[in-house]
## 1
Amino acid sequence: MLKYIGKRFLWMIPVLLGISFILFSIMELSPGDPARMMLGDYASQADVEALRKEMGLNDPFFIRYGNYVNNILHGDFGMSYQTKKNCAEEIINRFPATLKIAGLATLIAASIGIPIGIVSAVRQYSVLDVVSVSAAMIFTSIPGFWLGLMLILLFTLKLGLLPSVGSESWKNFIMPALSMAAMFTATLTRMTRSTMLEVIRQDYIRTAKAKGATQMQIVFKHALRNTMLPVVTIMGIDFSNLLGGALIIENVFGISGLGTLMVDSVKSKDTPMLVASVLFASSVGGLVTLLVDVLYTYIDPRVRMQYIKPSK
Amino acid sequence: MRKRFTTGFALCLLLAVTMMLAACGSDSKTPSAKNGAPDTGRVLYERALMDAKTFDPFATSDITEQIFHYQIFEGLLYETPDGKYEPAIAEKYEFNKAGDEITFTIRKGVKFHNGADVTPEDVVFSLNTAIKSKYTTKVSSVMKVAELKDGKVVLKLKYPFKPILGCLVNSSMSIVPKAVYEKDPKAFAAKPVGSGPYMLESTKPGETVTFVAFKDYWRGEAKIKKIVTKVIKDNTSALMAMESGGLQLMQPSQDYSDRKALKENPKLVYYEKPQAVFFDVGFNTAKGKFADKRLRQAVAYAVDKNDLIAGAVNGMAQPVEAAIVPSVPQYPKEFKAWGYDLEKAKKLMAEAGYPDGFTVTMRIIGATNYTKPAEVLQAQLKKINIDLKIETLERAAWFEKVYSGGEYEITYYAHPISVLDADFSTYAYFHSSEADGKGSNFYNYKNPELDKLLEAGRAESDEKVRSEIYKKIAEIVRDEAVCVPTYAGYRTMSAVKELKGVYADPMNRYYKYNYSWE
């Protein structure tokens, strides 16, 4: 198992190198001069040229990219063109806000989506099933930012219960998390329901029923674990996506997370900051995927057996 | 088996809870809002579109960032809300006879936030740092050097320059403590020390900037003791925060419905003033079809400004006659542009050899400020058979291709200024030394007669004579149809009724020292 985890870590190196190269190339090809952006639209060409030289922007692309990779290997993610602060520091400042929203959204989605999905499958075609499937369809179609604005209208303007912008207290995270959790919950409900429906039609479930197992025993002891594989996969993917930043939700609720940082970096052509933040988000995404893979071995003994050497 | 499964789930749950606790526990000490609305007793909550990337006044030219700097720093002079220049760190100043040297007497008893006195040495250091900086060129390019002479500060200019006082009120010319700045400019950019009415208390990148009043400020402590600036990028969210009481001050967005909502809210007061910028149809006068003056004149006759204002900005602008920002004191008030006359426009088209019209591409920045008026212009120019194709570019690409590169025939753009003086609205845009990508003359217009007038305008000290010079300049620009000035929008501000001293500033320059609670 440890060997597998080690291998996965090693695989992340070329992936991250590839991402950094693609990003560097895209930023190189996109229009706009970071030096001019820093000095302002009306700076003289001579000043812009002097700053370009100072920032090393006149060096050939491969030399700049090589230097950047070399610095990363030495633990230096570079300085932001815009803020002139260490990129790693900036990311660490922004990440907690994103983690709070993503974590809370995942908790909400899992605690609502999975139970409803199970009940829907077990009581297929019941009123609850119809209601939950319809609700899931509606929430899948509602854009998160719109839901966010509606929540502000209700909880801030009408009821005065929650603050609409900022991240001063835990209350600030409720509405953004709910906005992000809506679609996530709907996906989990649908996924849990469909997988559970498949599982409860298997022969071994019929056998369990024939042996006199109760409904609870069948669902929680025999069916749930088999249902969890695709559900955990979806949770991992969605959680990684949320960690990558949710720009629109961050903008609506005035929260400064990774998503805002990345888009601001693109707008200001701040290549070091963009590459560092995307590399960070990719690494976190990779780690979450790895965690999901490790979880498989706990959920499904067949997966675990693949990592156990057969005894001679 | 069951044990392992349970352990796995328990581990996951523990991890999730730990992450949540770790994340949520970090800033619980921050004062929290009460029921979504902060305590309005003494703290002022206001909105900003972005936070300051740097608090080094010599390392930015961005006016949205400079709003923060005006609270922390002070210059030799400051600008009153009605546009007058008053002494600040300088107690008094005197020009030499030639008009190329100013001697400043430094006010005694002014303190920096760290308790140190502001000395003439600090002033000389600050001015020279600003002069050397690449970020301050727009206001410091005319300055040669600052020197200490008999305990006074002498600022030497490259040539006599009348609008110099307007340059000195810009936050790029702030006074900083030499010892602190020199020791570590990077640390200074994060923890600035100024002599202004507010000290920077804390920042949360991308979210809040908090200021507290400086007790030893030389004009007396500010009436509002604490200001929290919240960075809210989404206009609808900002509007809702304002309506719910989460904010007490904000600059309304350009959106008509947002402005209407704020204007009609009985709890709020809406402030408005023409902004120090005008929008114009710009031509590349050096190449392409519009190198022919008659075609430029035809467009000038075909543009209906009132119709454009109604269609592009819902009437929230005033027409501009002369190619000078209307808020500057030298703006020729009686000046008239040619006006809307389709017959004359068609005649000029025929004279230029295009009786049946032509197709031309208008390159603009892809933002509603430019796309909406471009669509109205498209319809207006259709009437003289000019088929306008609109090509939108990303802002940086527009600057690269159109502004610096001259790769265009016709465009629509704002004409902003950094000092409220006609020189800043004309010299950079029409002097031949600024053409061909060297400066702001993206019209690439060159005219020795106009150059002479522009040079005379900045050197002349008599305001009456200057006004006459700028009237002549406006006439040449109109007759040559270098550009077609269309309208100037409004700077706006919305505040709760109990907040006093608020105003809308044409330059977006706000001294919050003037604010107070009723």
## 2
Amino acid sequence: MLYLSQAIGRPVRDKLGEPIGTVADLIVAIGDRYPPVTGIVVKTNGREIFLHWQSVSSLDATGATLQTTAIDISKFHQRPNEIRLKLDLMDRQIVDIDGRKVVRVNDLRLDEVEGALHLVAVDVGASGLLRRLGVEGPWRVLARGLHRGVPERYIDWEDVDPVERTIASVKLRVPHKGLAELHPADLATIIDQLSRNDRVGVIASLDDEAAADAIGEMEPETQVDILEDLEPGRAADILEEMDPDEAADLVADLSEESREEILGLMERDEAEEVQELMTYAEDTAGGIMTTEFVAVPAELTAAQTIDRLRELEPNAETIYYVYVTDAAGRLVGVLSLRDLIVAKPDKPLSTFMYAEPVAVKTDASQEDVTEVVARYNLLAVPVVDEGGILCGIVTVDDAIDTLLPHPSRLRMPRIFGRTSSGSER
Amino acid sequence: MKAPVLNMTPRTVSRVRMAAILGILGPGLVSGFADNDAGGISTYSVAGVKFGYDLLWVLLASQIVLFFTQEVGARLGLATGQGLAGLVRERYGVRWAAFMISTMLIANIGSIVAEFAGCSAALGLFGWPNWASALLAATVVVLLLTRGSYSKVQYLFVAVGIGVSLAYFVSALLAHPDWGQAGSALIVPRLASSPAYWVAVVATVGTTITPWGQAFIQSYVADKRLGPEDLVGERLDVGLGALLTNLIAGFIVVACAAGLWATGQHNVTDVATIARGLEPLAGPATTVLFAVGLLAASFLGLGVVPLTSAYAACEAFGWETGVDWRWREAPAFYGLMVFFVAFAAMFILIVPSNALIQVMFSAQVVNCLLLPFVLVFVMRLSADKQLMGPLVSGRILQAIGWAGTALLVVLSMTLVVTSVAGIGAA
């Protein structure tokens, strides 16, 4: 086991034990579970030379010994997946995927794995910090005297996600595989802790759906910042993946310039949907409704409708009601998911649907919507226009937002506290 | 592809505009107002009472330096999206970061003690004992931390700050100052050889340009996620902040110069003297006004300074920062805060109440002595092309920055030399 800080600055000797310089840095190849050391940077006569790991016979806390007597100064090419440990990782911020937070690298731990030296863990504990400050020994003596331990904390390299800017010297696309597997709310919390450049890097590496989910969990201001920093085409793709009501709220907050550009790049019907939603005032049924809902004609049977649901794969919040519309799109009935499932499969919807569904007009106030939802114990209420055409639905979670005190927005600097996305709703 | 026609309601448009304006105009202004904390108000008062208009040129000079240091700090935040402490750690390693943080913490402990002293001095005017005001100050910090409604409270402070500034403006007018003398003192530097004069110069600079102010503006800008495109707005904001701060400082000096110094009262032992000295001019409400102003200034400082230093330390060492974490999750952050508050409270309890103003004043001297250590990092980082990209300091900005830093070093050295000489002579 070797800590990077123990090797840096130690002498490098050739085969005969003649000192030729000091250890300046180590190079590893990223990609494997534990990145193997592939090269060493030696500082000699004020300049840095790169040597292949094959030419190093040993490396420990006393220094490095080379296989050869003559230094082979053949040009070392840093490959795209290689990073320098000290330059690129030491003292930088990384994402601790397991702990879901951003931490700073105090030291790097190297271990022999299958006969070769690999980067295995990141030291983020107090002991690493003390070692770097050169006071680990005295401190341990002191701690032992007080019968206290020195807190050690390591993050396995597998659970580490190096943030983008960290790898400034190499054009390396960090895959952020670990991040993509997190719950969107956790991901949003992590992204919230990152600086602007890192944030864009992480979002850029996610697929559209994961990015949309994570952005959906963020504060409105953060959403706007991120979307405006992204390349417009990408921003449009992500918006298409979001719920239309969320997307409309977000688009409304963008600057006029980016709004037009991004909407222009979205698919036509998605863009139109978003724009239509934007025409409603924010605190009305139209402003809070989503246009994603399931509407079917009355002639369908229960079994056909269930098949249709399977086909559409509606979101969790919109699956509970199936709305029945006539040829003109007017709302004529409603069914709950339960009604559908308990009905005989070949029964037409018209025979068991509620023919006089509760609905609100697009210009109904948010308070009215909330009241309707509460009075009738609904999971969602349909929204119709003047002509009775079904335009959208307001789900219960959007309706009850009015009942809660308005959350303090992240207008203020982070220096006064990190508002986690959890406090948003 | 043609962009679809947009049907925008006016509501959303105006909301965006407001957010954009509020979004940029902020860091520099808040930082500026926070400069006029308890230490600031007492230092300016003492300067006016002891030396009349003589120190006005220092205000002008330090305003210029303040603008440039804050501008660099803001630019670092815009370009890197990181706080100062984190940047020093990444660029120069753990040891330099530890060195800078220690420097900052020492300076900040001084400032926090000064805020506590400000509370005690202000409430002392209403007959509060020291322990009661220390208790109040400690409670305020705890409430600010635990209640999380900090963002609103801070605007209240700034509002009170503006109100108090107007009060100083009015008292300065009512004191019928010698504007001609004030004007010439503003432009023509007066150099005196007395150590006391240089101490006052150093304190005045030290209360205007502070180590925590440097960390504050950079973290604020970074945490607001402002970027290179906000450079112009940020410069405007910083300039406005520096201007307003020093305008207020100027009026405090002028009010005290005209009200006390001109009438032959050159010695100040406590704030009560200053408040009563201004009373004949602005009426009996002056004492109350002065006390409320000092109290608000102390709270403003208490809200900003301990948080900034704890934040910087945690940023450099990668500990959880910010009031959103639970105590158990961020022990270092809260531990530092508790230490600050406990230390300052203890200190105030053992200090006799007639030494409070001296404590506030001395803290600013310490600030100024430690400032160059922080500024050297700021200047070096801002000249790093790789780090700063297009926002890197050009030759002129670099020259100004280094000249300002050098000036501060010379000033600090002058103080040390004159103090040593003064001790030797005595």
